[in-house]
Amino acid sequence: MNSKIAVGKIGESLAADYLQNCGHQIYERNYRTRFGEVDLVTKQVDRLVFVEVKTRRSERYGLPQAAVTPKKQQQISAVAAHYLQVNQLFDQPCRFDVVAIRLNWQNRLIDLQHIENAFLYVAATES
Predict the structure, then answer these.
(1) Range of the structural domain that residue 114 is part of
(2) What is the count of structural domains for the chain?
(3) Is residue 47 very low, low, confident or very high in pLDDT (cuts 50, 70, 90)?
(4) Residue 41: enclosing H or E segment and its boundaries?
């Protein structure tokens, strides 16, 4: 398995465990649509949470959360809109979180930062 993919999988598992310990129910992992993918869909109390997990083993390319660019936010928003429509959850409150994870070179956790309400829904723009 590609090292980058393996690091991502480790990060997603750590994030899912962390969120479950914080009271989230995991509804989906790697929810894919034609618009893209979101790493985790969870529910916390009465709110649906779309979670993007970013994992890094170094800060060479910046902090993990910096990789959730405006374009990525737009993609996650489109996936979330699709999820809500397909599941007929039109009035469901939701939010977008980011879990930023830093690992050492042995893939052991250094830091996990959960950023609630990391961004607001970003509507698609016409090209």
Answers:
(1) 3-119
(2) 1
(3) very high
(4) strand 36-44
